[in-house]
Design a protein that fits this description.
With about 280 residues, this protein is an alpha+beta fold. It contains four helices and 15 strands. A hairpin with a 2-residue loop joins β14 and β15. Bound molecules: zinc ion (ZN). Zinc ion (ZN) binds next to loops.
């Protein structure tokens, strides 16, 4: 076995070891390295650092955070999705969520999609339907008008077939159709069946929270990685330092031994050997 560990032990048996400063951490590295080459040890140290990273960074996040809340200014929800008492006093099903907002508030496309239809009728008033895969999102009671198949609302003009990105302005809050105050009626269909938009809004909020949490965990794991790399560099530097010190000590030891050998050789040369030891003449 040839390692810095055995070198350290050999040195400790020599009086020269006192000139060699071994840090506690290096002594620990030595005690675990007896069956491993130094390169493997460094690799293991690096892996141990990597194992301490938070696992949360690897967890998948739902895609709902890509959705955009459909109005730029929010006052309140004035009517939820589902059964409600209608204007005539009888129960009716409300196929959407009513979001009150000041007149002229910008309405944004909830998701990337294509304008499927523009609407101009008694109930919805001026509105449109956007298709995003299996989802259709409906917007009603917009300001403006529909002319020759084009929706004009504030600065926006839309025609069926037009592509929209998520968050793109699609008109302004108005009071067209059957409404008692300025609001956006926002409806959602999935494969032709109505959904409660509030469920989607909750999923969006949940996904945004998860995304923020995931970004935080990612930043934390990056910090830990940098810290681990720094410790690894530090450990390599300490090892290189120990090896230099070992080499230095060995050189000094070899020099010392050479000098001892030289002195002994000289002493033998000065003291002539005879059968009864040094001659009387050598004591004069
Ligand atoms: Zn409504």
């Amino acid at each position: 076995m040839h390692s810095a560990c055995s070198e350290l032990k050999n040195l400790a048996m020599n009086s020269l070891a006192s000139t060699f400063q071994v840090k506690q951490s290096q002594a620990q590295i030595c005690s675990t390295s007896s069956i491993l080459p130094m390169r493997s040890l460094l690799l293991i140290l690096g892996l141990l650092g990597a194992l301490q990273l938070p696992a949360a960074a690897a967890q998948p996040v739902g895609a709902w955070h890509a959705g955009v809340f459909p109005v730029s200014q929010f006052i309140s929800y004035t009517s939820h999705y589902g059964s409600r008492i209608g204007a005539g006093g009888s129960a009716e099903w409300h196929h959407g969520l009513d979001i009150a907002a000041p007149l002229g508030t910008s309405i944004r496309s909830w998701w990337t999609g294509v304008v499927q239809d523009v609407i101009n009728d008694e109930g919805c008033g001026v509105g449109l339907v956007i298709r995003s895969g299996a989802y259709e999102h409906v917007y009603c009671h917009l300001a403006g008008r529909v002319e020759a198949g084009s929706l004009r609302s504030g600065p926006v003009t839309l025609v069926p077939g037009q592509w929209l990105r998520a968050g793109q302005p699609i008109g302004q809050v108005g009071m067209s159709g059957r409404t008692t105050g300025p609001h956006l009626h926002w409806g959602l269909r999935y494969r032709g069946s109505w959904l409660d938009p509030a469920r989607i809004l909750r999923a969006m909020a949940e996904s945004q929270r998860a995304q923020i949490e995931s970004q935080r965990a990612l930043a934390e794991s990056r910090r830990a990685l940098v810290e681990s790399q720094r410790a690894q560099i530090e450990s390599r530097r300490a090892l290189a330092e120990s090896r230099r010190a070992i080499n230095e000590s060995q050189r000094a030891l070899a020099q010392n031994q050479r000098e001892i050998a030289e002195n002994q050789r000289r002493r033998r040369a000065v003291a002539p050997k005879g059968p009864y030891g040094p001659s009387v003449a050598s004591f004069r």
